[in-house]
Structures are given as C-alpha cells and as structure tokens.
Amino acid sequence: MATFLYRMGRLAFRRRWYVVLVWAAVLAAVGLGALKAPGASDEEFSMPGIESQKAFDLLEQRFPGASADGATARVVFVAPNGEKVTAAENRQAVEKAVTELGDGTQVASAADPFQAKAVSKDGTTAYATVTYKVTATDLTDASKTHLEETLHEARDSGLTVEAGGTAMEEGGGAGGIAEVIGIAVAAVVLLITFGSLAAAGLPLLTAVIGVGVSMATILALSDALGLSTTTGTLAMMLGLAVGIDYALFVVSRFREERARGRTPQEAAGLAAGTAGSAVVFAGLTVVIALAGLAVVGIPMLTKMGLAAAGAVVVAVLIALTLVPALLGFWPNAVLTRRDRGSGRVEKSAETNGGTRWARFVLRRPVPVLLLGVVGLGALAVPMTDLQLGMPGDEAKATSTTERRAYDALAEGFGPGFNGPLSVVVDAKGDSDPKGAADAIAKEIGATKGVVSVSPARFNEAGDTAVFAVVPSTAPTDEKTKDLVKTIRGERPGAESETGATFEVTGTTALNIDISEKVQAALVPYLVVVVGLAIVLLLVVFRSLLVPLKAALGFLLSVLASLGVVVLVFQQGHGAELLGVEQTGPIMSLMPIFLVGIVFGLAMDYEVFLVSRMREAYVHGESPDEAVTSGFRHSARVVVAAALIMIAVFSGFIGESDSMIKMIGFGLAFAVLLDAFVVRMAIVPAVLALLGHKAWWLPGWLDRLLPRVDVEGEALSRRPETVPAPAGPSDPADLEAVRT
C-alpha cells in the first residue's frame, strides 16, 4: 500500500498538469451533466415494515388520488379576550380573510371554518385549512406573500391570526451560511497551524473541488437513481469536512518530509505513501459507517449514506492525486516564510506542545485514564432517559407564527388536536363493511385517552373506511404513545367480532413507529459498523488491543455526547443559553446521524494519530517513545482538524430550527469529546499502561491478516534520497532523485 501510494504521489507531482486537467475535465463533465439532468424530486419519507407505512400504502391503493401532495396552510383565528369568533363582527372578518385566501393563483381551496365545523366549543378559536395545487417547494414567492398579507389584514380587525402547515416551510438556505462560516473558521485555523497562506488555502481549495464534483454527480444522477433534493445534504457536510482533513494531513506530512531535507518530489511521494495510507484507511472507516446506514431500513437514509460515502471516496482520491499535483506547482510556497527565506528547510523541533502533553500523560496514565472514563461516564448517564420522537411546530421558537398557531389550537381544541390518529379499516370481503367500521370506531372511541372520533369516510368501492381519532394528550407525550399501543392491542378482538381489521397511522403514529424502529436498529447498526471497523483496524495496526480500545473509546464519546444532548434538549438544563425555548423528545434520526458521522471522524483521528505511533514503534522506538513521537508529529494537525469540524458543526447551533440546532450541537460536542478526551487523553494513557502488549497480535491472526504496510516500512528501507539543494529552486530542477 505505502509503496503504491508513494509511486502515485511522485507521479502526480511529476505529471501535475495532466492530473489537474483530468480533475478539471471530471468537474466540467459532471457539472454539465448536472445542468442537463432533470431536477431532483421531493422524495416522500417512507419506512417499509412499520404499521403506519402499511396503512399509508393501503390508503393510496384504496383511495386513489385522495393523498394529495399539495401544500397546506392551517390559519388559526383567535377572538380578543372576552369575545367569540362567532360574534357578527369577528365572523365577518374571518369569512373575509378566508375568501381572500381562496383567491390565490395556486390555491385549490380554502375551507370556511363555520361551514366545516372548525370552531372550538367555547367559540373563541376557529381555523381554516388552505390547500394548494402544488407542493411546498413549488410555491411561488407571490403565493407566500399573498398568504402573509392576508394574515396581516385579518390581524388589523383585532383578531389574533397565526398560521402553520407545510406552506409555511422555508427553503433550506441556512445550511449554506453555516458552511461559509465553517470554511472561514477553517481558513483561520489552517493559517495558524501552517503559518502559510498557500498551505492554508490548498486544503480548502481541494475540499471545495471535491464537494463540487460530488454534488454535481449527485445532481446528474438524481433522476436516474431516484435521489431527492435532500440526498446531498449529508454528502456536502461530510465531503467538506473530510476533504479539508485529508488534504491537511498530506500537506502536513509533505512539510515534515521537507524539514528532513527531502526534495519536493520525494517529499510528495513519501507524504502520499505514509499520510496517504492513513487517509485511505480512515476513508474506508467513514465509508463503512455511512454505507451501514442501510441497516436502519429507511430508503431516504440509505441513499443519503451512500451519496455521502461517494463524497468521501472523492475526497480520498483528491488527497492522493490532486494535492500532490498542486504541491508540484508550489513546493516552497506551502512552507513558512522563515523556511522559504532561509533557503534551507530546518528540521522539525524535537519538543513541541504535543510532545509535552504526551510526556505529561505518560507520567500519570492512571489518573488521566480514570478522569477521562469517569467524566465521559457521568455525561452519558442522562442517555438512559433518552426519548425519541419527531418534534414539530411545538419545538419551534415562540417568535414563529407556526408555534403560536400550534399553541392556539392546543388551547382551543385540546393538546391532542395537533396530532390526530388516522384509523384505516379494511373491510374487504366483509358482508357489512359500514357496520364493521362503526363497531370499530365505537370501540376505539370508548378507549381511555380518546377525546373524539370523526365519522367514517368510505372509498368508492365501499370496502375501506378511514376516520380520525383525537387523543387527549399532545403528539409527543408518552401517554399518546401508550394510547397508540392500546388501540392496536384491541385489534384482535375487533377482528374476531366484526371480521374486519384496522391499522393506525397518521403523522403522530408514524413518528412513534419510526422512533421505535430507529431505536431497535441502533444496536445492530453499532455492531455492524464497529465490527467491520475493528477488522479494518486490525489490518492497519497489526494489533488486537488497539482496535478494541479505539471502538470502546468511540462508544464512550458517542454515549456521552448523546447524554449531553438529552441533558440540554430533553431535560432543559442550559437550554436557554442555546436559545432552546421548548424541550422535548430527541429527533428520531439524531442518534443514527451522530453515530455514523462521529464514528467516521473519530476513526480518522485514531488512524492519523496512532498510525504515527505504530510507525515509530515499527522503526524501533520503545512504546513510550512511540507515543511521544506520534504526538510530536500528529497532535497539532489532529487538533486543527478537530477544531475545524467543531467550527463547521457549531455553525448550525445558531439556527432557529430546533432540529438543526440539535444536530449541530450534538456533532460539535461529540467531536470535542472524542478528539480531546478520548484520542488525546485516554488513548495515550491506555497505550502507556499496555506497553509492548498494545502492539501484540496472536501468531495465527497475524498470518491470516493481509499485510498492507500503512506505516511505510518498505519506504524506510529505500536508499537515501538526494537532499534538496540550497536556495530557492524551480520544481522542474528537482526531478533528478534516486528511486
């Protein structure tokens, strides 16, 4: 592996124009394909195998055309204190507003609340449902402006008017701002780390090129592969993250080899053969984590994982080819100004911050280990209270009209009104379908926790009915989850009495089913991903205990980060500091996203840091000396890489959307814990205690595993290369090196 990548790096350095032209051609080709390809569609969220999804599929089959995918807006009218919306003046204002809402060019219908019986029992609240002919993403600015202006006019009459629904959803432009902030912070960190504009700019340039190639490819293939507009979200985030990281490590190793007196071409080859080998295996661990998302069984999540895995592969290829090629154009520009001006690159200092920290841990391995493990364990305790769900408008800030509309409906119609259950009765083959549906509706209506049951609506064939069930508790309340289980538990009795069966669905039931399935899939996902990664790390480190230590450390950091997320977003401790106005269940997909993304990044840091220790150990250093060497060479760039990731993810904490805020906070905190507590403290402490045993591998396993030479042992046996000539040199004059 090391020898192959060494030759590839030298070839890319020597044939730099060809490499640059190839990547330019690839970017142009996929960019042209993206421009000419049909636009990506809005993929409907589905999860095969759960009852809610089966009920939705049955509805689409038995009620063709009924599941319209047009956008909706629910406009809520609340009368002033002491008044009712049914009063003549207020009613006139409501009817006028509904008429104006129905005049929109993209509006299909606007239901009058007084005719649709959408008025609360106390007469203080009413709502009108506006249905559009197009989806939320196809709503024009004119339609949204018309809706907002109508709301303002209705408020002028003295009514409190708020609106929720899919028509109120904003386009996803916030992520772009977060990425720009992340790139800006990354530039500052890289500049401080390298002390050179060229060295700081090169990883950013190659990362942006890699993201461009990946995103254009996804857009070009979106129609052919059925990819949605959300598929590329994870690919963009991770493509940028690992693209900067991988280029950072290659450039850092290039500078280190130059400091040893290597010629630029030789330094590029050695950087690709050593740091490049670590990049390959670090990338493989990320790909395993992302491809493993298929275990969860959510098609959209599987596509997102595979698309992001493709972006990581592109980032690896760019780090191994384009980065050495660009170093060929500016072999001295990536050095510090002092080194360029001296005419000779000085050897790296034997003592730096990484060395001092490693020696500190080596002198006190037991206290450092205990402090790290106990601290992470304490942070993980709240994770035992983890409650998963899909927060909706109730989790938004009270400054939003969607949240105020949610609260007004809950106050006027009861907390369960915002999350009704849909019961689909399948009476096909039954002699009396209507009687069966009525009997099932009556039995469910008598269930404790049910406020009301709507009249059953039948399809044209008359063999399928659907009716709404309003719970007495809020959609995210644990009692609502218990109610769904209770209703489903009544199915065998109803089926034996009526001959018909039913299924419970609706947004609330769907969220409950998704949460349960994701929670059940979390352990198998961890087993698959961590298991495959352990095998891969066995090959990389030729050690039994190092991969196990890496996996256990990751589990500690991810459990601790989940515990902190629960502490803040579910239990509310310190929530006000982050602008979280409403606590509640953790988003169902949050643990899966956290595990997948953080596992990949954690293994990046593990491979880059420990591979340098392994390299030093293989070359004859003692276990403690190897740990010190690993920190001397890699600590600074690992810290820089972690700070960049924390900055990128922290940019999302400032968003108003609670789910985006939660994801950004969780990822940033997980990287912080894994990089600085696990990799920088627990790892050296464990290696110090294990000594030579850390690198032990049973003989039978050693013979079984393939040898890939990640440490570059074969390269160390090569003849000494010609040192770089004194004074500034043109890259073309540096071609003559012994091979």
Topology of helices and strands:
Layout: H1 2-14, H2 16-36, H3 51-62, E1 72-78, H4 88-101, E2 107-110, E3 125-132, H5 141-155, E4 160-164, H6 174-194, H7 197-225, H8 232-259, H9 264-291, H10 299-329, H11 337-342, H12 353-363, H13 365-380, E5 388-389, H14 401-413, E6 421-426, H15 433-445, E7 450-453, E8 457-458, E9 464-471, H16 478-489, H17 491-498, E10 501-505, H18 507-541, H19 545-570, E11 586-587, H20 590-618, H21 623-650, H22 658-690, H23 699-704, H24 713-716
Parallel strand pairs: 5-11
Antiparallel strand pairs: 1-3, 1-4, 2-3, 6-9, 6-10, 7-9, 8-9
Short description:
The protein is an alpha+beta fold and 739 residues long.
**For the record, what is the CATH homologous superfamily label of the largest domain?**
Multidrug efflux transporter AcrB transmembrane domain
- What is the residue-averaged pLDDT? 82
User: Which class of secondary structure composition applies to the elements?
Assistant: alpha+beta
CATH topology category name of the largest domain = Multidrug efflux transporter AcrB transmembrane fold
Number of domains: 4
User: Helix share of residues?
Assistant: 55-70%
Based on CA inertia axes, which overall geometry fits? elongated
List the total number of helices: 24
CATH C-level class of the largest domain is: Mainly Alpha
Strand segment tally? 11
> What is the beta-strand fraction?
5-15%
The Rg value, from CA coordinates, equals: 30 Å
* CATH architecture call of the largest domain: Up-down Bundle
Give the end-to-end Cα distance, rounded to a whole number of Å.
Answer: 17 Å
- Note the main sheet: 5 strands, antiparallel
